[in-house]
């Protein structure tokens, strides 16, 4: 029976069919999806912190309203993704416990500080831009609930990217001080944004299997290159430079060549030694404790009214 299940699963993946929660799937496929979807969800909720840092200090009511909407969207993305992970038989509590205990990751990018208002624009343009480049292919992921969550998230991510780009453009065309602030933010966020796509293909532990299962549709380096090719003309339109002297168009390749990434920094941040790792997890644990009363109230209400746990 196991062999029959495996053959049916392999045939479904090969035929570009969606695997759904009630379908048989290899344990390793299930485990890798829980790993990736959980860490994707963790990234969304931790990602609220660097931006929320500027909500009370946004320069205008319009910028404040846009930023609040974006931070609320990120929370919603986290909830979609935790729900997608729960369809694989894991619980949200379990995933959050692993995050709080440092046993599951979140995207390295959120371990950097947001030092000025321009960082909010740089995050929208670069971080959400990178997220879109990574997430559009995931709309074709073989696991149904994850792919469908991505379709909705990508629509909202596009707004996040556009508002960031527009905010940076306003600063770039503003006073010399505003232009300098936008350039400084791009200088600090460019290389960490390239690291969001993961280690080089040769050092990617999961890529081969993830691509065989059609979870990952393009390699880390392929999407990183796609992102660089998108950003170079956008930086020119912004009147800002990218902090890479090796960046240049390569006619034969049909892509931009770019300089070496500091992978020591990448692995260091993953090990927990980034500028904000401790602060992000402390804040996350504190937020979880502060929210305990809401969970208890919801559970009491559900128990009293006999509904299945919400
Ligand atoms: N930050 C933290 N960990 C990373 C990472 C990064 N930038 N890149 C890779 N890793 C981890 C992997 O999770 C894996 O560790 P694990 O075994 O403990 O999970 C290890 O480094 C080796 O990397 P691999 O390339 O072998 O791992 P994957 O095949 O999973 O590829 C990935 C990494 C491309 C990030 C893939 O997991 C993925 O596409 N994830 C979904 C997208 C995602 O998580 N995006 C977060 C971006 S932030 C965001 O979306 C918020 C936005 O709205 C602002």
From TrEMBL:
A GO term, aspect molecular function:
phenylacetyl-CoA 1,2-epoxidase activity
Q: What is this protein called?
A: Phenylacetate-CoA oxygenase subunit PaaA
Instruction: List the taxonomic lineage.
Output: Bacteria, Bacillati, Actinomycetota, Actinomycetes, Kitasatosporales
InterPro entries, per the entry: Aromatic_CoA_ox/epox (IPR052703), Ferritin-like (IPR012347), Ferritin-like_SF (IPR009078), PaaA (IPR011881), PaaA_PaaC (IPR007814)
Its GO CC terms are:
cytosol
- List the Pfam families: PaaA_PaaC (PF05138)
Top-rank lineage group of the source organism: Bacteria
The biological process GO terms on file are:
phenylacetate catabolic process
Tell me the organism.
Streptomyces purpureus
């Amino acid at each position: 029976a196991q062999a029959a299940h495996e053959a049916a699963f392999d045939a479904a993946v090969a035929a570009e069919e969606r695997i759904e929660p009630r379908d048989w799937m290899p344990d390793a496929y299930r485990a890798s999806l829980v790993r990736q979807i959980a860490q994707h969800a963790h990234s969304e909720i931790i990602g609220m912190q660097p931006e929320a840092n500027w909500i009370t200090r946004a320069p205008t009511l319009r910028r404040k309203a846009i930023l609040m909407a974006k931070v609320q969207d990120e929370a919603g993305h986290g909830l979609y993704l935790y729900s997608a992970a729960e369809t694989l038989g894991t619980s949200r509590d379990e995933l959050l416990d692993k995050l709080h205990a440092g046993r599951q990751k979140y995207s390295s990018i959120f371990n950097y500080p947001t030092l000025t208002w321009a960082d909010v624009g740089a995050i929208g343009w670069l971080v959400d831009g990178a997220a879109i480049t990574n997430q559009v292919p995931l709309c074709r992921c073989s696991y149904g609930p994850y792919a469908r969550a991505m379709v909705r998230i990508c629509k909202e991510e596009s707004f996040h990217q556009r508002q960031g780009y527009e905010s940076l453009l306003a600063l770039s065309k503003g006073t010399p001080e505003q232009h300098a602030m936008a350039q400084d933010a791009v200088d600090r966020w460019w290389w960490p944004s390239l690291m969001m796509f993961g280690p080089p293909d040769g050092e990617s532990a999961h890529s081969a299997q993830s691509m065989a299962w059609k979870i990952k549709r393009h390699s880390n380096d392929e999407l990183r290159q796609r992102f660089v090719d998108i950003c170079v003309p956008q930086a020119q339109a912004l009147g800002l430079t990218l902090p890479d002297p090796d960046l240049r168009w390569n006619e034969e390749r049909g892509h931009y060549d770019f300089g070496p990434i500091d992978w020591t920094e990448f692995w260091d941040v993953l090990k927990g030694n980034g500028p904000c790792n401790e602060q992000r997890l402390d804040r996350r644990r504190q937020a979880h404790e502060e929210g305990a009363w809401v969970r208890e109230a919801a559970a009491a209400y559900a128990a009293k009214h006999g509904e299945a746990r919400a």
